[in-house]
Amino acid sequence: MDTPTNPNKALWEKGDFTQIADTMRESGEALVQKLGITRGLKVLDLGCGDGTTALPAAKLGADVLGVDVARNLVEAGNRRAAEHGLANCRFQEGDASNLQGLPDRGFDLVVSIFGAMFAPKPFDVAKEMVRVTRPGGRIVMGNWIPNDPTLVAQILRISSSYTPPPPEGFVSPMTWGVESNVTERFAAAGAPAENVSFVRDTFTFHFRGAPSGFLEAFRKYYGPTMNAFEAAEKAGRAADLQRELEDLFVSQNLSKENTRIPATFLRVTVAI
Ligand SMILES: C[S@@+](CC[C@H](N)C(=O)[O-])C[C@H]1O[C@@H](n2cnc3c(N)ncnc32)[C@H](O)[C@@H]1O
Description:
- By secondary structure, the protein is an alpha/beta fold.
- Strands 3-2-1-4-5-7-6 form a 7-stranded mixed β-sheet, with helices on both faces.
- α7 runs antiparallel to α11, α9 crosses α11 and α10 runs antiparallel to α11.
- The longest helix has 15 residues.
- The chain binds S-adenosylmethionine (SAM).
- S-adenosylmethionine binds next to α1.
- The site of S-adenosylmethionine has 23 residues, from α1.
């Protein structure tokens, strides 16, 4: 019997997120520097992609497990860890909504930068993150913010206006960028509101080439944008989508020679 398709997994295996992740390495490293990582700290990176945050954490001496739903990204992460000689960094497939096989209280720090926000069942995600964190440990999430004027929130907003409405019951990943939702989800998982804090932070994308080339990378390799273009093509609106996104990328770019685009996100810290 065929296993039923998991649309969430299919979305992220569809493209090649490593092509976008390559433009995010500097901010990934800078973020990890702020996390107080010490030698031997047990870190779980959820929705880790190919290791933008997992590798820098391992370089600081942490013992890192990266978990991601996309097999191609897990493979890319393991390849990158080997290339960097990081025996203390490994990647495996798994779903943030159900971390079966990972022990209760097994990690000092659970990190999820633009990762777990994309998993279905947000209340289950919060519960699982709390379950695998040891008392005295921390959870740190990076979440894009709905209606924020910067790049990623706008890409997702524009893309959704070209795609068919999601199935009933679908909870938008962007709801993780709303403080009251985050507090409610962690409270339901047993971490009270006073243990949850929020900071607005910035992630900067660096692409070697013009903004139109960066957009091309999203069109070719980033699952949500690929889907938006497929739907727009069917509706004869691909040129409109291209124009809207090109305007966005050009207007957000701060570099004259290449592409440098800062994007605002919500950094969430939960003390367990
Ligand atoms: C925008 S990428 C971010 C990747 C990485 N954290 C980074 O900063 O480069 C989103 C990641 O979340 C992963 N993801 C989506 N849904 C997931 C789920 N249910 N469980 C685990 N990972 C998931 C995707 O496969 C993808 O690698």
